[in-house]
Design goal:
The protein is mainly alpha-helical. The chain has a two-stranded parallel ribbon with strand order 1-2. Helix 1 packs across helix 2. The longest helix has 23 residues. It starts with a strand and ends in a 29-residue tail after the last helix.
């Protein structure tokens, strides 16, 4: 199994799901579709001496990764690529919900 980094931790640019899908498909063409699982090129960990990307950018990169993986899966395996509501197409994702069910910041 190969888990290539198809989104980067080192820029504040959020990859488009189409770009992510193309990267996944290139790896699959080399090692086979059943041997690829997409990932980030490194962690998003922050330390006081190094801030890689802003937290909102980090939060947007993961839905882009998921959206790109859905597109690539659709093309590689023939499954329909249907984006989940609010995820993977440039949206920041669903609103935060606390334990009480209240929408908004916890």
């Amino acid at each position: 199994i190969l888990i290539p980094g198809v989104v980067t931790h080192s820029t504040n640019v959020v990859e488009h799901p189409e770009t992510v899908a193309e990267r996944i498909e290139r790896y699959a063409s080399v090692v086979g579709r059943e041997s690829v699982m997409a990932g980030t090129d490194c962690g998003f960990a922050q330390v006081w001496t190094m801030n890689r990307t802003h937290a909102t950018v980090q939060g947007a990169k993961l839905p882009a990764l998921a959206g790109g993986a859905r597109l690539a899966s659709s093309r590689l395996w023939g499954a329909p690529a249907r984006p989940r509501r609010g995820v993977g197409w440039g949206a920041a994702g669903p609103p935060l919900t606390s334990v009480s069910g209240h929408s908004g910041p916890p």
